[in-house]
Amino acid sequence: MAKSIAGFSKLSKAEKIGWLAENYCGGDKDAAAVLAQYKLSDESLQKLHDGFSENTIGNFILPMGIAPNFLIDGKMYAVPMVIEESSVVAAASSAAKFWQSRGGFHTQIIDTQKVGHISFTWGGDFQTLQHFEEEIRQDLIQHSAHLTANMEARGGGLRKLYFKQVDGMDHTYQLMAEFETCNSMGANFINTVLETYASCLEIWFEQKAELTEKYGPLQIVMSILSNYTPECVVKAWVTCPISELTISTNEAEDILALSKKFKTAVDIARSDVFRATTHNKGIYNGIDAVVMATGNDFRAIEASGHAYAARSGKYRSLSRCELTDDSFYFELEVPLALGTVGGLTALHPLSKLALELLGNPDATTLMSIIASTGLAQNFAALRSLVTTGIQKGHMKMHLKNILAHLAASEEQALAAVDYFSDKVVSHKAVRDYLESH
């Protein structure tokens, strides 16, 4: 029976592993052996990685690949991607190569503002809050100047400060603050400033005796940045004459018919939530992989993107397609709050290498690179869906994982790759092949 424990965090790593092996692995010593296989030989580097989280017992390794041939805004990139799903890097690489000879990817930074809010309750009405908005704004700016000075020197800082009533909740309000954080993602900066704002807001109301007597005290609920960043958005697009849109290897296929089929697939994702969810997941196959490689927060990026996809009140595709005259146009518009300085980007050696491979971009350039990778992934997936189907290419890439799972020898694996070069790959088909050869 599994056991609870007090003081687990105070145990050494070896003691943690021993306790887990004894109480959750049936005394299986292989748990320690498996973890030992992934221990870094460089003790200082291992200590650095252990410090990224808490109660660490080992390293969980994910592959880091490269998608070359990305032409983005006239500049070539080899894009680092960290992901465990087969065919993602190959698909991004294929799409990058396809568009390289058709003008590449183009991007536009729409805005770069991030937002945070102070939630509070107060007995007064919203109009009264708005009446004092400018006075409060000046007070908060004055008392937080020591926190914002460095960011302001870099061209960032507070951009907007205004009150908002929380929908459907009486006497519940938010003080919304929008910031420019330059090349930093800015979470710690924003949260620190917001907590200072909250303290100053309480003091300001305490000093307004007439308001407190009439409406009661203001009570802070929480102060926190929002991972929804609809004002930190990038657009990426590709375009070419329809006659150049050779998205099928079947020369007998009508290119115009296929382009219409492609557009219909995108339109379905803009209308049907079931398709839109999978469609956008494919986009984040590309986005997340580069976000992880560069040491950014893929969970925050995804949460923001899915909220953005539902901003009209209905969850839709983040990409759209247009056919006009003889022109094919395919675009992705997505919020991306990224950083290229601070946080894990400054600590993880592979994140620093990933940024170096990308030419040490600033935050807006990284937005363009990541959005282009997401669009490339989406294009590749849709190209497969409207032609050969998604499984043909995916399962070919997955073949090596199946062979590893079935413990195929190197000789068997080479023979299997050759055998399945023109056949449908499935777990059963591979197992049957190995048993008969």
Please give a structural write-up.
Helix content is 49%, strand content 19%. The protein has 17 helices and ten strands. A hairpin with a 6-residue loop joins strand 5 and strand 6 (172-180). Helix 10 (255-271) crosses helix 11 (273-293), helix 11 packs antiparallel against helix 12 (298-309) and helix 11 packs across helix 14.
> What form results from the Cα inertia axes?
globular
Taking the sheet with the most strands, its summary is: 4 strands, antiparallel
What is the number of strand segments? 10
**What topology, given as strand order, has the largest sheet?**
3-8-10-9
Helix content: 40-55%
Order of helices and strands: HHHEEHEEHHHEEHHEEHHHEEHHHHH
Brief sketch in words of this structure:
The chain is α+β, with helices and mostly antiparallel strands and 437 residues long.
Provide keyphrases for this structure.
four-stranded antiparallel beta sheet; single chain; alpha+beta; 437 residues; 17 helices; globular
How are the SSEs ordered, and which strands pair?
Blueprint: H1 13-24, H2 30-37, H3 43-50, E1 64-72, E2 75-82, H4 88-100, E3 106-112, E4 114-121, H5 126-131, H6 133-143, H7 145-153, E5 157-165, E6 172-180, H8 187-206, H9 209-215, E7 219-225, E8 232-241, H10 255-271, H11 273-293, H12 298-309, E9 319-324, E10 327-335, H13 349-357, H14 363-385, H15 390-405, H16 410-419, H17 427-436
Antiparallel strand pairs: 1-2, 3-8, 4-6, 4-7, 5-6, 8-10, 9-10
